[in-house]
Specification:
Blueprint: H1 2-18, H2 36-45, H3 49-54, E1 59-60, E2 71-72, H4 93-98, H5 102-127, H6 162-177, E3 190-194, E4 208-209, H7 213-220, H8 222-229, E5 235-238, E6 242-243, E7 246-247, H9 252-262, E8 268-271, H10 291-301, H11 314-320, H12 325-341, H13 362-375, E9 377-381, E10 394-397, H14 404-407, H15 421-428, E11 433-435, H16 452-457, H17 461-470, H18 475-490, H19 498-504, E12 510-516, E13 529-530, E14 533-534, E15 537-538, H20 545-556, E16 560-566, H21 576-579, E17 582-585, H22 593-601, H23 634-637, E18 655-657, E19 661-663, E20 666-673, E21 679-688, E22 699-708, E23 713-719, E24 726-729, E25 734-737, E26 740-747, E27 755-762
Parallel strand pairs: 3-5, 4-6, 5-8, 10-11, 10-12, 12-16, 16-17
Antiparallel strand pairs: 1-2, 6-7, 9-17, 13-14, 14-15, 18-20, 19-20, 20-23, 21-22, 21-26, 24-25, 26-27
Helix pairs in contact: 2-12, 5-6, 5-13, 6-8, 10-11, 13-22, 15-22
Length: 764
């Protein structure tokens, strides 16, 4: 049967070679009246084994004899279309999560996909083939759970809560992909990294995540299930790490039992970049002996597209008899179907009329500013020192005051213009006193872990382009790396002279200190080894000591101090709650970040952000960083008292939230603004199951943003249904609606002191 199939394929190929690919009588795969699946099946039958293998690589080459153009599946849009020239830079996802504004996240990614379609059209017109970072298949969102603040890549996520992550992730998918029922998809989104990946960066190529079935189903998988079963995400990316002994890209349990089996997923599965070589490389997972066996295992498991080049070994695997070609055909059929669904095969798109000037245009910049406004979290405001008032003697100092690139976060576009906090403050404060004062750290920086850096730094751009071409990577990746290494070195200053700083602040009443850390220190697998940071991860969660000492010196000198903390993760700020009068957590807020922060500092915008992660007092409150069990991690399983809890965030007014009532499938609460200024509160609904003594203390099951005029009250309704009472079912070893007695809690944060509760009995 297989021999006959191959002979037929050979005859079809020979026939196609004798005919022009675009003939008067088109082949079925060229017939637009057929379904994408029908066209893909016909095209698949005309491909050689080598061609099939090549089309399962992220860098899929052109096949001119069949009219197939080159396409690269790899593109990034974590918070704006990245690595492809200028585009609008929105706040880092951890900041967007602080908004608790699902609708606004949807708007952001609708704007991003608009810009993506413009850039894709431009690239296709210029090159014909679509190269890396030019396609419309985006490897975002990152919906891993940010279970430990020491994970450097957590800033790419939507926080530590499965429900919030699922809601935000679905908004990203729907914004990027458009209407999933349209004949042509606007773009692909990708749920990553599947599954149980939450750091460390340093050991992700060898680490084996061992978690209970309850933690897997209750914490690590719900957001993935939401994106697959509710948002119809078109791609899922497997993680680098192992799960219960198997690399995630070779896990039959994750891929086939759960994802394709239980959830009925029909879309594409892609590997993380160069994750398949981890199967055999020394010091990595080492579960097979060579690249050919690695390719065979990934294909059989169901990884449709490999980011990397191990799949060039597929023909050899088939010839050796370790891979049946039918597995390859199964996978490639999905890939080709998606290429037709994206309109890429036909070079057609309903979005071709989008004007070029929407890219980083005024509407999208305004959207970035709005999201930055909503992302800012007011953590402390002693004596109502904020908002600032005109006429006060104000200085702005700190290592992050005038750092445009820091505002962009990671996986970012490079915008044409950025507003730093210094620039925004200079517009508001005449004769503003400003200087750096200290670095992020006061240690000497040396590039670590990548000996090529020294060589890269001395090369011309044309030489770097030659290297990029040789190794099939994008030159922008090298240029970004070089620039960030240079900027990182500039982030550090020699030992601080506090007396000199205080001398320059004579006559100043209020010091705004722009501090925190930087995406040059925390992020994905970085060559950084300095105190407090290792390989992109953090070894502690404290504010760097040089900043801590300066803040104390300012306080001791009688200055009023406002800390503007830039970071992608929680910082241990216990001493700063004493040395600082106000603390703003601003994350990495994007290209309009400076304006957004100044608007909040001066009261033009009333802060409304809420923490999507727990701010612990110190790392001493956390389990070992490699412990993936949820006990002790996140507000759901942390039994201590944090510094600032999940869901926490102050306003320039105060709210009271009444006792929840249940009526007609909704939880109803009354929200009253007790202050003198209008404000926005995020009402959060939590569920507790008292009889489950080993389960979470409470878990988020709903939220809504509500704007309340000063002195007024508003009624809020949050729907409840069977999914509100999804709970661990020991008998079924899964999350199902579970009958029983619960406590419904509504309020302005996850802390019991901010929640009003009522008992509720759920029956199916």
């Amino acid at each position: 049967m297989k021999l006959f199939s191959r002979l037929m394929t050979a005859l079809l190929v020979a026939g196609s070679l004798a005919c022009p690919s675009l003939s008067a009588q088109p082949y079925p795969y060229q017939d637009k009246s057929l379904s994408p699946e029908q066209r893909a099946a016909d095209l698949l039958s005309r491909l050689t084994l080598e061609e099939k293998a090549s089309l399962c690589l992220n860098t899929s080459p052109a096949i001119p004899r069949l009219g197939i153009k080159g396409y690269n599946w790899w593109n990034e849009a974590l918070h704006g279309v990245a690595r492809n020239g200028s585009a609008t830079v929105f706040p880092q996802p951890i900041g967007m999560a602080s908004s608790f504004d699902t609708d606004l996240v949807h708007e952001v990614f609708t704007a991003a996909s608009d810009e993506a379609r413009v850039k894709n059209r431009q690239a296709a017109a210029e090159n014909g083939n679509v190269r890396i970072y030019q396609g419309v298949s985006f490897w975002t969102p990152n919906i891993n759970i940010f279970r430990d603040p020491r994970w450097g890549r957590g800033m790419e996520t939507y926080g530590e809560d499965p429900y919030l992550t699922g809601q935000m992730g679905m908004a990203v998918v729907l914004g990027l992909q458009g209407d999933n029922d349209d004949p042509i998809l606007k773009a692909h989104a990708c749920a990553k990294h599947y599954a149980v990946h939450s750091g460390l960066e340093s050991n992700r190529h060898s680490f084996d995540a061992q978690v209970s079935e309850r933690d897997l189903r209750e914490t690590y998988l719900p957001a993935f299930k939401d994106l697959v079963t509710k948002a119809d995400v078109q791609e899922v990316m497997t993680a680098y790490n192992r799960f219960r002994g198997d690399p995630c890209a070779a896990s039959d349990y994750l891929v086939n039992t759960i994802l394709r089996g239980e959830w009925g997923y029909k879309g594409m599965i892609v590997s993380d970049c160069w994750a398949v070589p981890d199967f055999y490389q020394k010091g990595h997972h080492e579960i097979v002996d060579n690249a050919t066996l690695a390719a065979a295992l990934a294909v059989k498991t169901g990884v449709d597209v490999e980011c990397g080049n191990t799949y060039v070994n597929i023909p050899e695997a088939v010839q050796m008899g370790v891979l049946d070609e039918e597995y390859l055909d199964r996978n490639l059929l999905r890939v080709l179907t998606q290429r037709f669904r994206l309109g890429e095969m036909d070079g057609e798109s309903p979005w071709d009329s989008l004007p070029d000037d929407i890219v980083e245009g005024p509407e999208h910049r305004a959207l970035s500013l709005k999201m930055a406004h909503e992302s800012i979290v007011l953590l402390q405001n002693k004596g109502g020192i904020l908002p600032l008032k005109q006429g006060q003697k104000i200085a702005l100092i700190g290592p992050n005051a005038d750092d445009a690139e820091m505002l962009w976060g990671n996986y970012n576009p490079v915008p044409k213009s950025t507003v730093t906090l210094l620039q925004a403050m200079q517009k508001r404060v005449e004769g503003l006193v400003s200087f750096k004062g200290c670095g992020i750290l006061d240690t000497k920086y040396k590039p670590q872990g990548n000996p090529a850096f020294a060589q890269f730094a001395t090369m011309s751009e044309s030489e770097l382009r030659d290297i990029a071409k040789q190794y099939a990577i994008d030159v922008q990746d090298i240029l970004t790396y070089v620039r960030r290494e240079q900027q990182t070195a500039q982030s550090f200053l020699p030992e601080l002279n506090e007396e000199d700083v205080l001398r320059q602040l004579e006559g100043i009443d209020i010091v705004v200190f722009a501090g925190g850390i930087s995406p040059r220190l925390e992020g994905e697998e970085m060559p950084v080894q300095v105190p407090g940071f290792s390989g992109g991860d953090r070894t502690d969660i404290e504010l760097p000591d040089v900043q801590r000492r300066l803040l104390k010196a300012l306080h001791d000198a009688g200055k009023k101090v406002i800390l503007v903390n830039f970071s992608g993760s929680a910082i241990g700020l216990v001493p700063e709650t004493e040395s600082c009068d106000a603390i703003l957590q601003v994350w990495y807020p994007g290209q309009e970040g400076g304006t957004a922060i100044a608007d909040v500092l001066f009261g033009d915008v009333n802060p409304s952000g809420k923490l999507p992660v727990t701010f612990y007092r110190s790392a001493d409150q956390l389990p070992e960083v490699e412990d993936y069990n949820m006990e002790g991690h996140t507000y759901r399983y942390f039994r201590g008292t944090p510094l600032f809890e999940f869901g926490y965030g102050l306003s320039y007014t105060s709210f009271s939230i009444g006792k929840p009532k249940v009526k007609d499938g909704y939880v109803e609460v009354k929200v009253k603004n007790r202050g003198k200024v209008d404000g926005t509160e995020v009402v959060q609904l939590y569920v507790r199951k008292p009889s489950d003594t080993t389960g979470p203390d409470k878990t988020l099951r709903g939220y809504t943003r509500v704007s309340v005029p000063a002195g007024k009250s508003v009624k809020v309704r949050i729907p409840i249904n069977e999914e509100t009472f999804l709970w661990w079912n020991e008998e079924k070893q899964d999350m199902t609606p579970v009958e029983g007695k619960y406590i419904l809690m509504a309020g302005g944060s996850s802390s019991d002191r901010n929640l009003k509760s009522r008992k509720y009995t759920f029956k199916i």
